[in-house]
Design a protein that fits this description.
231 residues; alpha/beta; Rossmann fold; 5-stranded mixed β-barrel; 35% helix; 30% strand; globular; binds adenine
Length: 231
């Protein structure tokens, strides 16, 4: 079984239209939809925005469905000139840009419990995501570090901080939390996002305009991934 998590309904609802034999179950605050996509078992959920909601959803999914892998999909702000609107970014690593215990001597982003800053995505999952994106995604496909934090990044100061500190190519608000949850549980995971904005002063306008198109672009790749991925 493949688990798919999006933060918002718009990031998951198109995927549900491809599913057959759907079975819904709400656990805690999260509604899970299990079913078949192209004959393969998947479970999809909308986790809500932010790292806490994302972690709750990922851990619940792992305990209730024991997925072989989990994919986090949706939209992201671009931190790189290489990634334009509706292009696809795939994480090779993820970082929590708002994790900061530097006053105690740790480097920015250090996750004390794991002893790492960058959480590596599963290489096989990332490579199948890339294959699927190269076939299905409308724009360019770029692999690199994705930075997550409990902030919608919409200023050049914040953007510059994340780029200069972590060298990330895109920012969003859930991927690295799902990464930490899966990494801790030993569940292979990947993060694929389509760019909705440039994480700068006009990000809110671009986001409002391109959210549906970018979410749909990401969904098409996820459908391709499900068809291709085998353990
Ligand atoms: N998701 C899409 N765009 C974003 C941004 N600029 N900051 C955080 N999350 C996002």
């Amino acid at each position: 079984m493949i688990g798919i998590i999006g933060a918002m309904k718009v990031e998951i609802e198109e995927l549900e239209t491809y599913m057959e034999q759907k079975e819904e179950k709400t656990i805690g605050s999260v509604r899970f939809v299990k079913g078949l996509l192209d004959g393969r078992e998947i479970v999809a959920a909308v986790c809500g925005i932010g790292k806490v909601a994302a972690s709750i959803c990922a851990q619940t999914m792992i305990m209730a469905y024991a997925p072989d892998c989990i994919i986090n999909t949706g939209v992201a702000g671009s931190l790189s000139e290489k990634a334009g609107i509706c292009d696809t970014v795939i994480a090779d690593t993820l970082v929590q840009h708002d994790m900061d215990i530097t006053p105690l001597g740790d480097p920015p982003g250090m996750i004390e419990g794991l002893g790492i800053v960058d959480i590596p995505a599963d290489e096989k999952v990332a490579s199948v995501l890339k294959e699927a994106a190269l076939q299905a995604a409308p724009g360019k496909v770029i692999t690199g570090k994705i930075a997550s934090g409990d902030q919608f990044v919409a200023s050049s100061e914040k953007k510059d901080f994340i780029v200069n500190t972590f060298n990330a190519i895109a920012c969003e608000m859930e991927g690295a939390a799902i990464a930490q949850t899966c990494y801790s549980a030993g569940v292979p995971f990947g993060v694929l996002r389509a760019i909705s904005d440039n994480a700068d002063g006009s990000a809110h306008l671009s986001y409002a305009e391109f959210l549906p198109e970018a979410a749909s672009a990401a969904c098409k790749t996820i459908v391709g991934f499900v068809k291709k991925y085998s353990k």
